[in-house]
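User: Can you write out an input/output pair for a complex, sequences first and structure second?

Assistant: Here is one pair. Inputs:
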Amino acid sequence: MSMRRAGAPAVAAAVAALLCVLPFLLDGYHQGIASAVGIYFVAILGLNILTGYTGQISIGHGAFMAIGGYTTVILSHDHHTNLIATLPAAAALTFVCGVAVGIPALRLSGVYLALATFALAVSVPQLPLKFSKFLGGSNGLQTDHTVSHLWLYAVSWACAALGFVLGWLLLRGRIGRAFRAVRDSELAAASSGVSLPIYKTLAFGVSAAYAGVAGSLFVLWTNGFAQPNEFEILLSLKILIGAAVAGLGSLWGVAVGAIFIGLLPQLSASVPLIGPAHGQDVVFGFVVILIMLVLPNGFAGLLWRVRAAIKTRPGTS
Amino acid sequence: MGRWGRFLAALTGAATVAAVAVTAAMGGHSATPGVTAKQITIGGTFPLTGIASLYKTIPTAENAYFQYVNDHGGVNGRKINFLIRDDSYDPTKTVPLATQLVEQDHVFAIFGSLGTVPGLSTWGYLNAHKVPQVEVATGDSFWGFCAFKSCDGGKKPWTIGYQPDYPGESKLYGQYISQNFPNAKIGVLYQNDSFGKNYYAGLRIGLGARKENIVSAQSYDPSQTTPSQQVIALKAAGANILVIFALPQQTIGALVTATKIGWHPDATILSNVSANTVFLKLAAANGADVNGVISTNYVNYATTVDANTPGAKLAKAIIAKYAPSLDLNDGNVEYGLGAAWMFVYALQHAGKNPTRASLEKALHSLNVADPFLYPGIKLQTSKTDNFPVEQLIFEKWNGGATGQWQPFGKLYNHLR
Amino acid sequence: MATFVATLTKRKTAVSTGVSIPVVALLVAGAVFLLIGCLSSEIFAQQTVSGLADGAIFGLLALALVLIYRATEVVNFAQGEMAMATTYFAYQLTQWHLTYWLAFVLTLAFAFVFGVLVQVAFIRPVQHKSVIAVVIVTVGLFILIDGVVTWIWGADLKFMAAPFGNNVYTLSGVAFSRLDIGVFLVCIASMVLLWLLFQYTKLGLAMRASALRPSSAALVGVRVDRMLAVGWGLAAVLGAVAGMMTEPKQFVLQPPLMQPILLYAFAAAVLGGLESPFGAVVGGLTLGVFLNLIGQYVGFATSELRLPIAFAVLLFVLVLKPTGLFGRRQVRRV
């Protein structure tokens, strides 16, 4: 999907306008949902950079979100840091953690890498329980103040937009080409001079940084409360689902993936007959499976096919 | 713009329309949210599914009491509409559900929400919006004392608990052991979160000088369904008193494991959270020796010991009519009835047209016996006392699988 | 057909012997250490016995995971939930007044059909399309099965009869409960039966061929698709056994029954080698004993670290020898 077409900036402007207007049409509760979509957007974007563009599977992004979230809470709780200022701090710390994970991950691939990241996702949330003096233990930690729904919406979507632009810039250039080369064939990439260790760990770092920012915003969304239960394995799995629904290897589907995991649980809770207590899981699980069966390449794959169909319709230029 | 661009623009337009369609109606609400001429709406979040789902009987029992009240004219002519939401004990679900209750359903108060972690995730928001957070269903002490001192960035005057707090309860266990087993070697099993740690801290305070008698304290993680490794370690340390501060599943596991490895402590003490008749019988059915196990109680066991009190008879009648699927052997049911009774009482004393402020005032001037609590236990609050129930009675399990709880000793007052 | 398939499989095993000398030495050393420990300390022995009992369940579920991975190269995140669902089926049968062991056998049959249906309906359509899609489908199944079970039976606690009774036998101060012995024996029996199936039956042969060389196996008339479905069915049966053995150890039946077990089973499967059934069981037993002993003797290893320690083992194995104790080293051909 290239942005060379003249239509793309117009679409981007339309989307930006929509996002600016939207919060004023919604009440606080729905602003919160819209913020959640923005937060998932950032996380899925990061995972897509790693899994979609360099082919390294990670089921561990919840761990990076936890690190980012706790960074924000600790800075706010202990040092009364401005909340926005905690975001770059979270990004920097998780970038370093991502690189630290990426280095041993060089030896692993496919299912083994998936399991290793899974191990991280399960283990990292236990650490605040072990080191409860600094990390709050099971009672968690809270930021020194909570934020309004509108504030969170604005910051989440600003981060989402920024993340999208940065991602696009990163991926269109030499780094993006190197990433794609790594994904398509590591052997070919290495033999044409692409340094596997550098690009693979870079991808891990960047991806983790996105997850870290998403984690900070996630904690702010949870009324500024960071607690291990929020970062359980299901969170990592949800991000992965979002990335798969979005379609790996393309930035355009990310919005759909984010809307999917942000909205579907809410919508499926109100399905009749099954009831709100179970509706979420039954409908959500079923729809996830259905989407993967019908669109194994996600929304981006669908867009591709639609685009191809439009272009090849008789009578078009 | 190319064809492809037009397509994307159309998609965006459709998304805009969809987004607007999703907008919630911002209908006007009355001066006091949740209160109309005919109805009062309250809501709470509960673990109806997930790992803590054994507590789902509580909101069902509470709703049963509210329905009984509604059938008898309601409160000052208003029926209570209780919205029960499932958060699976997951704070990332609790937060949007609580926001929805307050900002979409416009509830008058948040009632009975269960769980420390879910409670902590919402108390800042609720207090900032001056929404009463009534009778949080956990025994942590901060629901009580954070009305008066700053916790997590500010005082929480809109929050109140209900049940006796865990440290207060375990202080009693410490005193009991000191008096009855002064030279005991004590082994403690506790859950490694604030629930277990608060209990353990209270035990040490209650033991006073005798806290040196604790020969081993083993914690377990909630993800460990049977703490057998820890029980083995406690026996190895030579303990002859076993104190278990665990949730029901792990309590059963600990009791069964202790008997299995041939350990018969001189006394076994349980937290009253897990001292349900149902669980003791289950432990006995699986081979645990539960005769003589000790705990405390504050509810009125409608099935056995206090069956002739008016409260017990009322409980039986209400459950039979409004929630026949509930088992009165499950202490959580009496808990729910008692908690709902307290709310209705406060509401009745909050004036003909209650406001959130008048509800809080009523909640802080209680001095009445709740019929669903153990006879003699009163709900007592004041401007400086934010702990409604501060009394406990000791009880001992006599028998095995067909035994029952037998209260003994005097009523302990003023736990704090 | 059988001889041709047999030569295919024999050739592969001749090339790389699954078990290497260092691993055997390590295991023997470990066994000796445990023996000495058990003889010298009653507590060591008790923790070991208890650990073996826990580890047997990890091994059973790990066996199911390995079976599916070997056959289809899929890591089935829904294995635990499938095991839990079949356990609820057994519960329902006992509620309809069937005896425990009759319900057990009928549940195994149900589990087989269930596993086959899942493979045919949900996995087969995406198996060759996208690796990520298959992972997501198993995750979706995890969520869906949990939701459906909660919908049908509710989330409250259910109670089942104890299959092995409550007796406890004591040997020089160490207690062995009938339940733990029963679970351990069932686990070993399952592994042995599975091995016999693979080594000595035509079906097992065909399954092995389908896993190792699907195209060659298809050429000699093996219905590869069918074999994959059978693999999933058998794995579901193993999962059902794991679930029904877990329930009495937890005393209550509720939907999150197998969720912590699944996590430890992953660690056990990686430890033993994702492609080795024998490794899965050894991995499970080892993990169970290791966790108990570390918890007893290492002060820093408090309960919060139990799961992280299991996963540290997993990470350690992945970094040192990704194919695990008994896995064969994969050589990537250019």
